[in-house]
Structure formats: structure tokens, C-alpha cells
Amino acid sequence: MKDNIEDNKANSPLESLPMHRKAVGYNHTKATLALAKASFRSITRSPSAVIFTLAFPLIFIIVFGFIGGGGIKLDVAVAPGSDLQNPVIAALEKTGIIRLTKNDTQENIDKNLEKGAYDALISVEKNPNGLPAYFTNVKYTSASLTNGNVLKSVLNDLAHQLNTVNQKPTVTEIRATTITGRLHRTIDFILPGQLGFSLLSTGVFGTAFIFFALRQNLVIKRFFATPVRRSSIVLGEAIARIGFALLGALFIIIIGHFAFNFTLINGVVTVINMIVLATIGIIVFMGFGFVVSGLAKSESTIPPISNIITLPQFLLSGTFFSINAFPTWLQPISRALPLTYLNDAMRKVAFEGANLWDVKQQILIMVVWGIGIYAIAVKTFKWE
Amino acid sequence: MTDKKAIISVNNLVKHYGEFKAVQGLSFEVYENEIFGLLGPNGAGKTTTLEIIETLREKTSGEVLVDGLNVDSDANAIKQIIGVQLQAAGYYPNLNLVELLELFAGLYGVNVTPMEMLAKVNLQDKAKAKYKELSGGQKQRFSIATTLINSPKIVFLDEPTTGLDPQARRNLWDLISEIRNNGTTVVITTHYMDEAEQLCDRVAFVEAGKIIALDTPDQLIDNLIAGGFERKKEVKAANLEDVFINLTGKAWRE
Predict the structure, then answer these.
(1) C-beta neighbour count of A247 within 10 angstroms
(2) Nearest 10 degrees: Cα torsion B149, B151, B153, B159
(3) Which residues are CB-neighbours of A144 under 8 A, at least 6 positions away?
(4) What are the distances in angstroms from CA A180 to CA A69, A173, A186, A357?
(5) Helices (DSSP H) in chain A: which residue ranges?
(6) B15, β-bridge pairs
(7) How distant, in Å, are the alpha carbons of A19, A196, A335, A360, B136 from that of A272?
(8) What is the architecture of the domain spanning B6-248?
């Protein structure tokens, strides 16, 4: 300690010289970047930020990525005692959408049919009296009517094909062809939704919590005792949060693309377009966060208020299901929410290869939301 | 104190919060390179006065000059030459001490080596610790380190020793004396009269928004005695705190 004192004494006359020059040339950019750096470090160490931005969306993506691989699968049990070496079973196995279970017990089959774990029970028997060569008996279950109907049409189609083998059609032959389209996987729908959800929660929860905490713990007041500007505080915080959210978005897109074949129709250009959309999204959602931080009276009121903003959007903005699946009275509400347009734009860009100009309507609606929410934020935000 | 050049002059300072008159016409000067104590009960207006000088709060009327700069027109220039420790202020969450000091260096626009700043307050060992994890005395020492980042001319300390044990308190006195000895003016508020008596070169007593006495601690005590005051209890050559320090040692406990 003694040594320090003498050091300082020696230095202080020298130090006082540049200090007066500093009074003129205070660098606001440096202050802003120092805040951005501090905030970014803080965010990466905050468990809730990492969970909401990365973990939750990734879990949903992984879950849907695995279950959504090949469209519909039908579970069909083959009755014990059924003939197995026949063209019907062989054809069913070839369809690729039917999973046949051949060695289950009758008791187990009945139980699972009731639950809908099996979509149907099938048994094939040879016709001892000649033609037709086989009888195919199908038992559907009311527990799985939709899949039963799919199976019904598969079987009809199959029966027709098998019955017309080696026969000239008598009236007409339908020559249907299918255009080879882009395969639309579940991930192509789910990932943009999860990206939107990630941006929404990072924007709202993160911003609300940090500004409330900074205000409540007098951190901002201490900042005000330095020459830093208010705009630098907001800007520094925004840079960090936007940066973190975009890194998260990039991470989600890359994992989705390489691990689950998420479609990026124009490759890197698509990614850049998605990042631009994500930036617009996070800025709008941070506006909600500023409003919440101003409205919250205590730390415990932040989650409920934030949930009022995020949950309806999470459920109604087409994060998991297309909003076309909602009842008509609900759809106008969905179409009023900003996340709906972010999700919509993201999907158009990623899957349909739309450019940003093509989704200008969605962007415009988000910008309108942004202007509205920041107008409210300016009124409700509190510094002290 | 031979030159007695005023570095802070407060003239007829008034602050009203609605109907409540927190500060009612305060006038005083703080001299360069002294430790100046603002003493008084809670709610007397000490913190309000400090925050007005620190440019954190608007005044209702009066004039405040800090190193010749006016709080009304030169707030930003004042912020660059003062260091401020707030009562009960927290720090940015999830950052360690070195990172917090880097942040403050950026906010003040200066280049400092965080470890050197920590060495000044003897917290090198806690470089990687979070502020929350520090003891009361360490927290106060760290707060003081943040006030020294911009090599300020004046440091403001608002109740820095409240809630500390006697050892930590004495350590802080040493630190504050060092800061003064390095050529920095210190303005401090406290509730502890023994602290003011030992530490402060001059003290002002604030009561209900007014200054009711201002002088060196010695002179104020002499004045009281000259007025015929006598302690009811016989004064002993030591007090209980001396016993405490004597028994438990002066070593730092953190």
C-alpha cells in the first residue's frame, strides 16, 4: 500500500494534463462499445438468456426434426395366423408408409387398437375355392379414424393394381403423373417458428429483466455519474442483445440445415435474408421489453407481464401450427400479431426463396408494430 | 491546509420535492485536498446535497461550482473530474471485478489496468470474483476503486462505512486518507462521529436541510467545551472499540 501511494504521487501531476484534454474529446463510441461488451458477457452468462434463445428452440427443433422426417406413418398389425407369403403383404411393405407388425399377440393387438396405437388390423387368407386368390380382412379402429381412412385408400389403390395385373383395362386407364416438388419437411415449418420464438423471448424477457435490474440496483444511476449518454446505454445494450440473438439465430439455422435438412433454397443468400428479418424482429420485440421494464413494479411482476406478451404470440402466431388450422374467429387475432408476420416472412424466404422485397408487406407490418411499441416505450420507460 | 483554495462552492442551495423542502439554503465550501464530512441524521438532506453536486439531481435554486465548473451548464465536464460512490449502488450483473473496471474505464473514456486499480484497494485476490460475492468491506473498497478510475480531483463517498465491522472500517479510513494524501479531495457522509473526528479535516453538520455548524472537528469540540459542556460519564483513556480492536487485532478479516 505504501508503495502505491508514492507511485500515485509521482504520477498524478502527469495524469492531470491529458485529463483536461479528455474533457473535450470524450469518446461516446468507446463508452457504447464498452457497455455492449459488458452486456454481451453478462448475457452469455445468464442461464435464462441461453435457455430461451438456444436451448428451448433447439429442443423443439430436435423433437420435431426427428418425428417429422417422413410424413404419415401407419401402424398396422398383422393378425396372428394370417398368411404372410402373398402379394398383398408384399405390396403393403413396399408402400413405405405402412409399418407392419407381424408377431404381436391377439390380446396385445386388441388393446393397442383400442388406444389407437395400431391404426388397423389386417389379415390375409388364401381362398381355397380359387378366385380371387386371397381375401384381405381389415379391421379399423375408431381411435384412429384419419389414419384408417388413409389406409383404406391405400388398400383400394393397391387392390386395384393387384387385380389389374396382366389385364387390359376395359374402359379406361388413368395415367396420373406427379410433379416432383420440393419435399416440404416438418423442419421447414417448425424451424422458422422456433427462430421467431427465440427472438421474441430474448427480446422481451432479456430486455425487460436487464433494464429493470439496472434501474433497481442503481447501476444506471452509477452510470449517470460518468460522462456516458443515455443513448449510449440503450444502444450498447441493444447491440449486445441483437448480436446475441442473431448469433443464436445463425446457430439454429446451421444446426437445422446440417442436422435436419432445413431447406435454405438460395443457400447463403437465404441465410442473410433470414438474419435481416431476425434483426427487424428482435428490434421490434425489444420494444416490448422496454415497455415491460417500465411497467413492472417489482422483479416478480416481469415474468407475468412478459408472458402476456409472448404466450399468445407463441401459440397463435403459427409457431407450431399453420394459422390456417385455427378456427376462423381466431385467425384475425393471429393476423394482428407481429410474430405471425416474422414467421410468415421467414418461411417464405427460407422455403420459397422469396427475397426481402417479396415479403415487404410482412416487413411493413413489423415496422408499424415497431413504431407503435417504441412510441409506448418512450412514454413508459423509467431511468430511475 | 495552508492555501485553503475552494474546489467546491455551494451557495444558497435549495431543493424541494413537491411540498417537502429537503435542502433549504445550504452554503459551504470544500477546500482542495481535504476530507470534508457532511454529518447529520437520516433525512437531513446530506445525500440530496451530494447528488446535486455530483450532477445526478436537479436543484431548485442556488449555485454550485465544482472546480470552477457550474453544475447547470458543465455537468459533463464535472462528471469527468469527479468519482462517485453511491449509497447501496449495485453493479452490472454477471461480471467479475476486472470486467466491471473495464466497463467503467470505457464509460469514463480512460485506459487503466484493472489489476492496478484493484491493487489500490487491495482486492487483487478477488479479480475474478463477482461483486455479489464480496464481503461488505470488500464491496465498499471496490466501489472506491471505481471512483478512482478517471483519476478524479474529487471523490464523493456516501456512507462508505455503514454496516462494516470495526476492522473493515479502519481499513477504509486508511484507504480514504491515502486518497487524500495522493492529492484528491474527499467529500464523505457518515453517521459515525468517531469516524468524522478521526478522518475529516473539516465537518459540516446538516439538520433539516440547513447547515448548523461547520469547522474542524477539534474546533467544534473545543467550542462545545468552552460553552461549559461536560460528559455525564467520566471519560476513560480508551473506549469499548479500542478494547474490541485490541482483542481481535487490526488485521483484515476478509
Answers:
(1) 14
(2) 30
(3) A116, A118, A119, A120
(4) 18, 22, 18, 28
(5) 2-24, 28-44, 47-50, 56-67, 87-95, 106-115, 145-163, 186-201, 207-216, 219-224, 230-260, 268-295, 302-316, 331-334, 338-351, 360-380
(6) B23
(7) 44, 16, 26, 16, 49
(8) 3-Layer(aba) Sandwich (3.40)
d(CA A367, CA A280): 8
**Beta-carbon separation of B151 and A23 below 8 A:** no
Cell numbers representing residue A180 in the block: 416432383
Q: Is B20 helix (H, G, I), strand (E, B) or coil?
A: strand
CA A118 to chain centre: 30
CA separation (Å) from B56 to A72, A134, A229, B67? 65, 92, 13, 17
**pLDDT per position as a tens digit, B73-100:** 999 999 999 999 998 888 999 999 999 9
Q: In whole angstroms, how far apart are CA A198 and each of A301, A372, B188?
A: 21, 22, 48
In angstroms, the Cα distances linking A132 to A25, A283, B20, B70 are 97, 68, 103, 107
> How far is Cα of residue B154 from the mean position of the Cα atoms in its chain?
10
Better pLDDT: B2 or A325: A325
Chain A residues close to B181, C-beta within 8 Å: 5, 9
Q: Which helix (H) or strand (E) holds B155?
A: strand B154-158
The phi and psi torsions of A380 (rounded to 5 degrees) equal -95, -20
CA torsion A294-A296-A300-A304 (nearest 10°) is -110
Within a 10 A sphere around the Cβ of A129, how many other Cβ atoms? 6
Closest CA to B130 of B169, B91, B85: B91
Q: The C-alpha cell of A182 is what? A: 420440393
Residue A42 confidence (pLDDT): 93
Name which of A222, A230, A299, A383 to mutate to probe chain B: the one with the most chain B Cβ atoms within 10 A of its Cβ: A222
- What the block records as the C-alpha cell of A53 is 434463445
| B58–chain A Cβ distance below 8 A for any pair | no
Ranges of each domain in chain B: 6-248
B14 interfaces chain A, CB cutoff of 8 Å = no
Compute how many other C-beta atoms are within 10 angstroms of the C-beta atom of residue A81.
9
- Tell me if chain B has a CB within 8 Å of the CB of A230: no
Instruction: Give this prediction's pTM.
Output: 0.77
Q: Residue B70 above 90 pLDDT? A: yes
Q: How far is CA A107 from CA A77, A111, A137, A202, A250, in A?
A: 12, 6, 18, 51, 50
Hey, what domains does chain A have and what are their CATH numbers? 32-66+186-380 (no CATH), 74-163 (3.40.190)
Q: What distance in Å separates the CA atoms of residue A318 and residue A326, rounded to the nearest whole number?
A: 9
Q: Is A12 on the interface with B (CB under 8 A)?
A: yes
ipTM score: 0.90
Biggest distance spanned by C-alpha atoms of chain A: 116
